[in-house]
Design goal:
Layout (H helix, E strand, L loop, with lengths): L2 E11 L10 E11 L3 E5 L6 H8 L7 E6 L2 E2 L6 H7 E4 L12 H11 L4 H14 L15 H13 L5 E5 L7 H18 L2 E5 L11 E6 L2 E6 L1 H5 L2 H6 L6 H11 L11 H14 L1
Parallel strand pairs: 3-8, 3-9, 6-7, 7-8
Antiparallel strand pairs: 1-2, 1-4, 4-5, 9-10
Helix pairs in contact: 3-4, 3-5, 4-5, 5-6
Bound molecules: adenosine-5'-diphosphate and magnesium ion (MG).
Magnesium ion (MG) binds next to helix 1.
């Protein structure tokens, strides 16, 4: 397995107010994210998800332990540019990420700053807009687009940097269901077709069902780490951390408590319907 991002005993604290002890937002995190994988990070507010994400592209640096991006230590200043180019970030508010008045200029912004030659930028912008399904908007004004379209433009801006990994920090939180679906299918496609490693931080359990892996953060530590089936069948543990489970698992859990013999690990609506139908047929 090739590792995209690895953290070792990672600790981080924000600077404290005068006379106060610093509060650790990350208290010893050990994870390894495989290249080409799709990882979802869950956890209640304040559990450390955004802090963790920012250590992945050296926006925040460890105060203890290490973060390696494709083997590069984020504490090595000489590697900073290389690391930022490998790991792109997309944030919650689409409006805060628009930097130009025309879509193509917006997408070209980061590679231009890197000094990429004009011809190459032209090609990258076209490819990136195609990859997010926004080619026809190349000369549009970004601020007039829908939330989902704006986020896809933000993703195109990241893609134009040709990163190996994209980290999305609640990038669907402000979108309506259609916008959310647009963004989700776009990043799944980038993962599948371009092999881009995806780290998706989300509150929506339904966005986690298709992940290769789920990491649950709690109080600055990794509380759970496994496949969607492994994580979502720990119903009591998730609830104790203030998290919900997918509606499918909730339904199956209730049926089991009523004495119906169904498994818990049918996460999709289709799989859930199947196991309930089988239980009915057995009766
Ligand atoms: P999450 O993204 O899971 O909601 P965060 O990483 O934003 O969690 O926050 C983790 C902890 O760090 C929280 O206790 C939060 O209050 C604290 N924190 C986050 N950002 C800052 C900051 N800029 N300054 C001080 N404390 C912060
Ligand atoms: Mg956050």
């Amino acid at each position: 397995m090739k590792t995209m991002i690895e953290t070792r005993e990672l600790r981080f604290a924000y600077p404290a107010d005068e006379g106060k002890e610093p509060v650790f937002a990350l208290r010893g995190v050990d994870i390894a994210i495989e290249k080409g994988s799709f990882t979802v990070v869950l956890g209640h507010n304040g559990s450390g998800k955004s802090t963790l994400a920012k250590t992945f592209n050296a926006v925040l640096l460890p105060v203890g332990g290490k973060v390696y991006v494709e083997g590069m230590d984020t504490l090595d200043e000489n590697l900073l540019l290389a690391i930022r180019q490998r790991v792109g970030m997309v944030f919650q508010n689409p409006d805060n990420q628009i930097v130009a008045n025309v879509v193509e200029e917006d997408v070209a912004f980061a590679p231009e700053n890197l000094g990429v030659p004009t011809e190459e930028i032209r090609r990258r912008v076209d490819d990136a807009l195609k990859a997010v399904g926004m080619s026809e908007f190349v000369t549009h004004a970004p601020h007039l687009l829908s939330g989902g379209q704006k986020q896809r433009i933000a993703i195109a801006g990241v893609i134009a940097m040709q990163p190996d990994c994209i980290v999305l920090d609640e990038a669907t939180a402000m979108l309506d269901p259609i916008g959310r679906q647009e963004v989700l299918s776009t990043i799944h496609k980038l993962n599948r077709e371009k092999g881009i490693t995806v780290v998706l931080i989300t509150h929506h359990m339904s966005e986690a069902e298709d992940a290769d892996r789920i990491i649950v953060m709690d109080d600055g530590r990794v509380a759970m780490d496994g496949t969607p089936k492994e994580v979502f069948t720990q119903v009591e543990e998730l609830r104790s951390m203030g998290l919900t489970v997918p509606d499918t698992v909730d339904l199956l859990d209730r049926l089991r408590h009523s004495g119906v013999d169904v498994p818990l690990d049918a996460l999709t609506v289709e799989a859930c319907a199947d196991v309930i139908a089988q239980a009915i047929a057995r009766n």
